[in-house]
Amino acid sequence: MLGAPFFVMERRRGVVLREAIPPAMAAIAAHPRMIGEAFLDAMVKLHGIDVSAPGVRELGKPEGYVERQVRGWTERWERAKTEEVGEMDGVVKWLAARVPPPLAPALIHNDYKLDNIMLAAGSPDRVEAVLDWEMATLGDPLSDFGLTLCYWVWATDPEVRTAGIPALTSAAGWFTRDELVERYGTRTGRDMTHVGYYEVLGVFKLAVIIQQIYCRFHRGQTHDLRFENFGVRAAGLARLAARLAERYS
């Protein structure tokens, strides 16, 4: 016994996509489609893990997961807001009133986005590793997918540009929102009827995260000027969440 918390990690080598596609990968004509398929299929594989297996079932309490998410992120918003944002009040009410019937629980990542996977170098069709597991738990798989959607397909939306989300997937050849939803539904067999709800929840959560960071700057707990406009970014996401909620009502 070591007498202290520890974890085991393995070094992996590959490519993480953030602001741009590396030239060697960009030279492959079909790279957007290949990356999109590999990215989504890795999520499908994650959501297919047997959550009743020993060592997995202890990772969370999936019962009532979405209700807890709405309640918990609402409380975080109330603690972090630095001014009133009317759109967020409406989004909170919308989410609380429309919680979908629960799906069978899955192992979820809770921050599954393009720059949290590592692609094999020279192989845009293969995921080498999935990174940043600190928020992984057991819960509703579409809550995972909904957050992915808000990072992926709304990159061309003005509010998302205001929020500073990287827009790699807005270029030609990448999966559209509908294609992403269709592929996930086909590969998993899950009912996608309420996917819009989870998309709104994902945008809402992202807005709260950005606002929490801005709150620290606003209170003088950090003087990092990178966070100076995060309040504007959070408000942009609040507008997007409200607009999506109206669309899916």
Features:
single chain; Aminoglycoside 3'-phosphotransferase, Chain: A, domain 2; 4 strands; 9 helices; two-stranded antiparallel ribbon; mainly alpha; 249 residues
Report helical residue fraction.
40-55%
Number of strands: 4
Mean model confidence by pLDDT: 91
Structural class: mainly alpha
Main β sheet profile: 2 strands, antiparallel
Low-pLDDT stretches = none
How many domains make up the coordinates? Answer: 1
Amino-to-carboxy terminus distance? 55 Å
CATH architecture: Alpha-Beta Complex
Q: What's the gyration radius in Å? A: 18 Å
Biggest sheet, spatial arrangement of strands? 1-4
**CATH topology assignment:** Aminoglycoside 3'-phosphotransferase, Chain: A, domain 2
Task: Give the topology, please.
Elements lengths: L22 H4 L4 H17 L17 H16 L5 H12 L8 E3 L8 E4 L2 E8 L6 E3 L1 H12 L5 H6 L13 H12 L6 H24 L11 H19 L1
Antiparallel strand pairs: 1-4, 2-3
Helix pairs in contact: 2-7, 3-8, 4-8, 4-9, 5-8, 8-9
